[in-house]
Amino acid sequence: MAEATGVFFYVLPGIASVANFTLSSASPTLVPLGVATFSSLFQIGWAFALGIAFAIITCAPTSGGHFNPAITLSLAIWQGFPWRKVPYYIFSQIFGAFVAGLVLMGMYWTQISEMKAAFIEAGKPLVANGAPASILCSFPNPDQTNLGYVFLIEFFVDAFLAVVIWACLDPANPFVSPAGAPFAIGLAYGVMVWGFANVTISTNLARDLGTRIVAAIFFGREAFSYMTYSPISILVNIPATLFATAYYEIVLKDSFMIIAKGHAQHRDGDTGLVRHLSKVGMIENDEPGTDGGAAQTSAMSSDGVPVKR
């Protein structure tokens, strides 16, 4: 339930901002009044960024805050997350996005119905970028006929996000505190929306599949068949995330395990190493400036356990 709630918390504000953008841009009554200028990709990026931060703050203490099937699989591969829990987590994540899509349709039902009727009357498709279905899930632009190009965009965006997430989860990373991690991860999503939403990204299997099912219910099965894009939006997230987390684990990670093997020496000696591990940056000495047997150094480790020498 925590995983489903967390995905709901991050998807609902995001797609609500997309609804605001799409509906105000398409409305013949609102555009002349300048209301459409309130919405932009900048606003949408912030909605997803803060939604993710709030989701982590609210639900991660219970479930660990995966909120993405690819992250769940990566944690099972690299961090020992129990494989028996993986199917339950993935189902819950997709379900959370599905419920968010249904709630959004209910809250904007009047406006979406009017937009749908106007598109039908004008002979425009209901499933396309800028059409009513795009409120719920992404679709390529009409000129994005090269799916290899779309694949690479999705792959690199998802890999970027996975590296940032893995860096935030690294206990040896001195630059991200547990309190700051939700906002760092959320801002990473915001940056990707600001940079690449205009050329089509989905970023998360659960977020895309859950809302795409809702789009298929209300706007037809073309939500899955349009330009044969849905396999990219749903599945590319997994190999991209596995690649990025493998890259971090093999190339970038410099953690306690390396230090424990005696392959690291701090430039300030043992006391500097204690400061590094404790992340408090200070040592309390009975005899300042000495490093003899009578000196006692202490600090708090990252999990609150005193470290004494």
From TrEMBL:
Pfam families per UniProt: MIP
Key words of the record: Membrane, Transmembrane, Transmembrane helix, Transport
Topology in the lipid bilayer: Multi-pass membrane protein
Region (Disordered): 285-309
Transmembrane domains' residue ranges: 7-26, 46-67, 88-109, 149-169, 181-206, 226-248
Superkingdom of origin organism: Eukaryota
Listed Gene3D superfamilies: Glycerol uptake facilitator protein
Subcellular location: Membrane
Record-level GO cellular component terms: plasma membrane
Protein name: Aquaporin-like protein
